[in-house]
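Suppose a colleague, Dr. K., hands you the sequence of a protein chain of 179 amino acids and asks what its three-dimensional shape might be. Before reaching for any lab equipment, you can write down a predicted structure in token form. Begin with the sequence itself:
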Amino acid sequence: MKKKLTIIGPAIIAVALITAPQGVVAAEKQAKSSDSKGNLSAADRKFVDNAAKGGMMEVSMGKMAAQKAQNNDVKKFGSRMVSDHSKANNELKSIASKKGIALSAEAPSHTFNSDAEYMSMMVKDHQKDLAEFQQEAKSGSDPDLKQFADKTSKVIASHLSEARRVNKELKGGTSNLTR
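The predicted structure, expressed as tokens, is then:
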């Protein structure tokens, strides 16, 4: 009997030592996957929602400006909004998907009646967006979103600078959109 315990005891210990790390590794994998899915802070979730809605609005309005603006700089700015914000929107969708967040596919509807009105809206919107993206880059809790916000804030700052320049040029006269 003593020989059986002497053999069985170490065998049980060996099996326990072999299987325990597998359980720990599985638990670590599960913890990592739950960290990357759905565990965003309320502030991070709000940022994602606002950034998605704002990005879709920029694309929608940019298309309209690129097609209907009378001023060439406004047309170019609208085209840039479509290009840059489509790229950022796709990146945000990818991050949101990894985090288990479904973004609305419905673009907000905004309209404007003149080149000057569009550019004025773009200055105001990009000022607000820049502050939100810089805040997320500085204080966000999710590293993927912080990196996205930091990188994208640089593009938004460039948009704001260009929007201010074009808006200032248009202040002398209002150019109506063609309908």
